[in-house]
Amino acid sequence: AIQLTQSPSSLSASVGDRVIITCRASQGISSALAWYQQKPGEAPNLLIYDASDLESGVPSRFSGSGSGTDYTLTISSLQPEDFATYYCQQFKRFPFTFGPGTKVDIK
Amino acid sequence: EVQLVESGGVLVQPGRSLRLSCAASGFTFDDYAMHWVRQAPGKGLEWVSGITWNSGSTGYAVSVKGRFTISRDNAKNSLYLQMTSLRAEDTALYYCAKDLVFRIYNLNDGRAFDNWGQGTMVTVSS
Fold first, then answer.
1. What DSSP designation does B1 have?
2. For the segment B37-63, what is each residue's pLDDT rounded down to a tens digit?
3. Which contiguous run of DSSP H or E holds residue B81?
């Protein structure tokens, strides 16, 4: 199975900060990567698919990039509603593994 | 508006069976692959199983293969997960999720899960 690691596992940031979360795959996944946001008590919400395509309705402060084994999710200016846990997921091959998550909380 | 409503989660003893259901509305159910994803209390997300729009292809996580069976009834706009030989480690919130891509014939052609239900809790304990 393709393993995904995320870094950092958690971070503290302030409103307005630029935040970058990294997802690394154990083998190349050809940009077959999605990013989700999950708030406590809620289901995950799709942010990005195909590594860099913004899901409809998602604010443009979210962006994704990367290729091969290394991918990033960037929040250009952190907003109060962005404090949450973020997960990456690969779609290159079964099983569709998730990363362990990155928790973003308030500094 | 897309709605996915899971049901069937309960407290069940180890070794027993359980069937989860997911009722879909707000989109053409038989055009999309569907998936089950679970989340153990305080833990991350784990993909469990998926099925294409026409039930032609299914897939399972190694942890559930041989014990869980995914199915769907397009006439009833419903997705199911039959769970047998349940273990304590199957304790989790089970989400139903819709695939982003229209009419894939191979689950490997999926690209993301664009709609999720609120989940149904399965607790396996004696």
1. -
2. 999 999 999 999 999 999 999 999 999
3. strand B78-83
Q: Which of residues 5-34 of A touch B (CB under 8 A)?
A: 32, 34
Residue pair A51/A67 in contact by the 8 Å Cβ criterion = yes
Q: For the segment B61-113, what is each residue's pLDDT rounded down to a tens digit?
A: 999 999 999 999 999 999 999 999 999 999 999 999 999 999 999 988 999 99
The letter for the amino acid at B121 is: M
Whether B58 has its CB under 8 Å from any CB of chain A: the answer is: no
Cβ within 8 Å, pair A95-B61: yes
Distance from CA of A26 to the nearest CA of B (A): 17
Angstrom distance (rounded) from CA B54 to CA B74: 8
Residue B26 CB neighbour total at 10 angstroms: 12
Among B46, B108, B111, the residue with its CB nearest the CB of A98 is: B46
pLDDT on residue A106: 86
How far apart CA B24 and CA A94 sit, in angstroms, is 24
Peptide bond between residue A40 and the one before it cis (omega within 30 degrees of 0): no
In angstroms, the CA A33 to CA A28 distance is 11
